[in-house]
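For the sake of transparency, this paper describes our internal protein records without simplification. Because each token names a local backbone shape, the row as a whole describes the fold. One such record is reproduced below, unchanged from the form in which we store it.
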Amino acid sequence: MEKNPIRLILVTLLLSLVAPLSAGAATSAEVAVQVREQWATVRSSYVASVKPYATNPLVPQYTLALDKAGKSLEKFLQLKLSSPPATPATLTPAVDQLAKDLAALRLLQGKASGNLATALGAALARHSQVTQTALKNMR
């Protein structure tokens, strides 16, 4: 039986939604750990979902951009956890860079077509959700 890539993507997306990131009363350090774990989980799901399209030149470009966004997110988390607390003048460029990195992912996803566009769109949605959670819940 041949595996349907769309079904694989949808199952991966649904499974990743089963374990949502909850940070109601969590400390910043706990939120950072959750964000890092979720980012890694979603990245692994992304890698699995684009395996059938590995020969498409957009896949390595998107993966590179995704890794850059991950580094920007990590920089933001480190700034938020720093002691003494980072100033807005330091945080703003980090948040701006994170927004630029997500916009680059959106641009690459827009260049894809068919099932690859679906896979990249699902990955982008989940990574955006993890990023928004980090921005919202890091005190």
In short: The chain has a mean pLDDT of 88. The longest helix spans residues 58-81. Residues 5-137 form one domain.
